[in-house]
Amino acid sequence: MAATTKTNSELFFNGILNENPIFRLALSMCPAVGLTTTMMNGLLLGIAVTFVQVFSSCTIALIKDYIHPRIRIPTYTFTIATWVTVIDMILAAYVPAAYKEMGIFVKLIVAFAIITMRLEIFACKNNVVKSFWDALGMGLGFMFGMMSIGFVRELLGMGSLFGYKILDFRPLLFFVLPAAGFFCIGLMMAIFNYVEFKFKGKGNKQ
Amino acid sequence: MKNIIRITIGLIITCVMAGLVMGGVFTLTHDKKQENEHLRFQETMLGLLGFGKENPAPQDLKFLSIYRYTLEDPKAPEKKDLGYIVPVLNEGKEVFKLLIMSQEGEFKKALDLNLAIDKAMEEQERKSALERALEKGIRPSFGDTIILAKKGNERLAFLLPGRFPGFKTVIKVMLALSPDYTVKGLEIMEHEEDPGLGGEITQDYFKNQFVGKPFSKLAELKVVKEPLPEDYRKVLEATRGPLSPEQEKALAPYKDRDIYALTGATISSKAVAEGVKNITMKFAYRFQNLEKVLASQGLIPAF
Where is the domain boundary, B55, B77, B99? Predict the structure, then answer.
């Protein structure tokens, strides 16, 4: 794939809908299964991933001409790990309230497939501005996916949303357990595809 | 060959750059981070005593810390002694003494420590002070801290930071005990239990179940798998800090009950109950020994 010809806004919405990391690319499934027990988790993890994705993509887009092709994957890993550590330390020092909630999520991000994959597919072939919009779209798409799974699981598993009680009882306690994540993601993926086929017709399938 | 050299140099540069960035940010943020942790610790201590924004702490509230160390002598490794860094009164002034005693509470030695009161919070300072006072070769390793909250001359509570294994990793808590070893409050400082299941240990309706449990009950504390009675839950969720007389009355029928397990997280519930029990039991035993030794040596404790 050579440099993209898409406009910035196309790139942005591409990450949220056409190539949604969770429902379309099926990447980063571990956090999607393990951490979507509540909507709040999805939101916090989404914010953290968006930041790391944007910073890493921009860095790689800046230095792409200097990376030897045979060591690009280690370089990506270093870049992501550096940004994760930096964000972790800055949060801990200057925004302790947010760190208390987000601390454990930020450290998990180093191993997320979606970030490495975006650097490999997009950022190392495009300029900084395009990479920024692509990263932002991907990050927000990830957040959207996580939050929608979290919505279903939290509502069914705990009867609450964002920690506020909606129902007086827990309809299906099973939905809090990791195994239910699989069911939930499968169902949501199917719905996501169904809606898109409805609007665009099967011919547009990428 | 040329390729390998280029790859090597490329990797080295990447590593060095990454290292420099991380190191730089670390030095910039480290102090602030520690300060934040320290602040949070203090806030939790005050919160457990019932002081906060609406109810500010009185001027004469004071925290005194006792640090417990295990002393290992390489010549007799199977016998470990306990070393307590205790604040004592010496001609009206607070100074730190090091009390060495056996595990069974038998007095061995009392040493003077060259440690300023305001520096004792830092582990590094304590360690170097211990090394100066102890004989060569004896290795101290830090055990835990007992914090005593005092208002004027009256003992308010013991605050015990502790840690124990949970379902997944270590759970760090702070336990507040009244002077007669009744639980005054429990706060979960750090944990990595599953959100939605074991993570519910941070909820008021779980951790407040421990509040008001007397020492005699704690010794045989168990976890029962029964649904939490609705009226009990309401009182528990309204409880913050020390109990008001009405709350005490409402909680009285449940005082000698066991802990109701969390739905779907029996292991985490058991871990916390066991942990609280262990912290209290060990503390009570050690503290009584310590007080006995202090009295027999004619030392006047500052607490």
Answer: B55
CA distance B130 to chain A (A): 31
**CA pair distance B213, B209, nearest whole angstrom:** 8
Residues B155 and B301 in one domain: yes
Whole-structure pTM value: 0.71
ipTM of the shown complex:
0.75
- Alpha carbon of A144: minimum distance to chain B alpha carbons (Å): 20
**Does A158 sit within 8 Å of B14, measured CB to CB?**
no
Contact B7 A78 (CB under 8 A): no
For an interface test with A, the pick among B9, B11, B34, B36 (most A C-beta atoms closer than 10 Å) comes out as: B36
Pull the structure tokens for residue A83. 């940004």
Give the pLDDT confidence score for residue A2 in this predicted structure: 63
How does pLDDT run across B96-110, given as a tens digit for each residue? 888 888 888 788 888
Please give the full DSSP string across A65-133, using - where no structure is assigned.
Answer: GGS-GGGHHHHHHHHHHHHHHHHHHHHHHH-HHHHHHHHHHHHHGGG-HHHHHHIIIIITTS-HHHHHH
The separation between the first and the last C-alpha atoms of chain A, rounded to the nearest angstrom, is 15
- The answer, for A148 touching chain B at a CB cutoff of 8 Å, is no
In whole angstroms, what is the distance from residue A196 CA to residue A201 CA? Answer: 8
What total number of domains does chain B contain?
Answer: 2
Q: At which of B25, B55, B85 does a domain end? A: B55
Residue range(s) defining the domain that contains residue B298: 58-303
For chain B, list residues whose CB is within 8 angstroms of any CB belonging to chain A. Answer: 3, 6-7, 10-11, 14-15, 18, 21-22, 25-26, 28-30, 32-33, 36, 39-40, 192, 194-197, 263-264
Beta-carbon separation of B196 and A38 below 8 A: yes
Backbone angles phi, psi at B55, to 5 degrees: -130, 80
Among A145, A153, A144, residue whose Cα is nearest residue A178? A153
